[in-house]
Design brief:
275 residues; alpha+beta; Arc Repressor Mutant, subunit A; Beta-Lactamase; six-stranded antiparallel beta sheet; two-stranded antiparallel sheet; 19% strand
Length: 275
């Protein structure tokens, strides 16, 4: 049998070794399951869902609770804490994005008298990492850290519209696994319309009387890494029109892209939707 290491060097023909980490896998299984359960789960429910014994789950829960990733709720159920969300915010690329976006978002809110928030894709959903409320008595606000399905969000469609084909395919496959649904039949037409306009403006998917405006923020490869969004509401007080507000949001997204060293797509770049 040929040895994997010869004369101090690794034989490239040798197969890669696979390492099993059952404890880590069990912990990640618990976190991923609880992430989908807003009301939490009991030890028994976790054990059944993960096909584990209660003693296995109990040891894992103790460890995760001591590390601050989960907490026991009032009715013997376990739920996630905000530690994972805090870790995401502290991750350098995310921190840089939020730091660069916040001044532009504040300017948009003060200029348009509308709230503004920043969303990124995460596991088939849009997660809102930053928000600036409108400086008015009345406004529509999105809770920091909240999530929404990418197919129910203007920001989700905007980010999808500017993904390379392979990445878009991975995102859609992940979304189908998470939701068990099929993408809308008009997805390709919808994304093409966004690319032609450069942003999304349409009635909210979830709230009546709100017009969602969303603009992409690009990286150095001209792919969307986030979306700057505004839930525009018409009030009785004098204010900026939805068209003018959309232009202010577009300029802010372009400024954030420039601050990050990103590049808006040129005419030669093509984005396609997988068949």
């Amino acid at each position: 049998m040929a040895k994997a290491v010869r004369a101090g060097r690794v034989d490239k023909a040798a197969p890669k070794q696979s390492y099993s980490t059952p404890a880590l896998e069990k912990g990640l299984d618990v976190l991923e399951l609880l992430a989908k359960q807003p009301n939490g789960l009991t030890k028994s429910e976790l054990a059944r869902a993960l096909n584990r014994t209660i003693s296995e789950i109990f040891r894992m829960l103790i460890c995760l609770e001591q590390r601050g990733y989960i907490a026991q709720l009032n009715d013997d159920r376990y739920g996630l804490t905000l530690k994972l969300f805090q870790m995401v915010q502290e991750h350098p690329p995310t921190e840089r994005l939020v730091l660069d976006a916040t001044p532009a978002m504040r300017h948009v809110a003060e200029t348009t008298l509308q709230s503004c928030h920043l969303g990124v894709l995460e596991l088939g959903k849009v997660t809102f990492l930053a928000q600036v409320n409108a400086p008015t008595r009345v406004g529509f606000y999105v809770r920091l850290g909240s999530t929404v399905d990418i197919m129910d969000s203007a920001s989700g469609y905007v980010i999808l519209a500017y993904q390379p084909l392979a990445q878009l395919q991975r995102i859609l496959e992940e979304w189908k696994r998470e939701t068990g649904r099929k993408p809308p039949s008009d997805l390709q037409t919808h994304l093409q319309r966004i690319r032609k306009a450069g942003y999304e403006k349409r009635a909210s998917y979830l709230v009546k009387g709100v017009t969602n405006i969303s603009c992409p923020i690009f990286n150095e490869r001209s792919a969307a890494i986030a979306a700057l969004a505004m839930p525009y509401i018409q009030t009785l007080e004098p204010g900026m029109s939805v068209v003018a507000a959309a232009e202010e949001l577009r300029k802010a997204a372009a400024q954030i892209t420039a601050n990050l060293g990103g590049r808006e797509p040129g005419k030669g770049l093509r984005f396609e939707v997988p068949a």
